[in-house]
Known about the structure:
The protein is mostly helical. The protein contains eight helices and no strands.
Amino acid sequence: xxxxxxxxxxxxxxxxxxxAVRDGFRDRSYAVPASAICFAFSVDVSVAAGSYDRWxxxxxxxxxxxxxxxxxxxxxxxxxxxxxxDFPRITPKAFRWMFLIAMALGAGAAPVLSRxxxxxxxxxxxxxxxxxxxxxxxVMLYNxxxxxxxxxxxxxxxxxxxxxxxxxxxxxxxxxxxxxRWLLGYMGAVSTILASSYLIAVILLRAGKIQFxxxxxxxxxxxxxxxxxxxxxx
Length: 234
């Protein structure tokens, strides 16, 4: 049962990646919060580097990690290409350097977290990455004031992932040597609540039922040469 659920979680993750990348290029925007990518990329690179024991007995971790790292690179390219327009108060060059520095500083986050929790399979880091993205998604939606780069499909897949992945690891066999399964359950529950709120907000925004008063709608066309106004963040 554990292997089946874990395979389902991986399949959902790949589907979410594909839809997020598609939405980002379609709307010429980054589809995943830039700050969340920094931590998620650290986790995926650690998996690809073989830093953890295998999740599936017959699948090398570098193969599994590569499935995640490739779309990560595309998401990073979206941030570098489309991110500067959301931050008019700094130059595009400064934004890109700030993002790359954040990526470098966050590179060691997953290995340090795993070592601190004696996590040989990277489970805590993977669930923590889900929590970070779940926290950042509603913040990005509010700051943009629009669903640019986002969709109900992506939000639904993300909610499904927050339900399945943490609970799957909660049921992990003894060889995973997880010392605090309740921590996984807590992070999973918080992620699901935030992901549910995010999905509801995306649906209501697309239906025109709600709007963020005073927020800038990034998808609104602006005259040439004019700069967006209002606070925007990663």
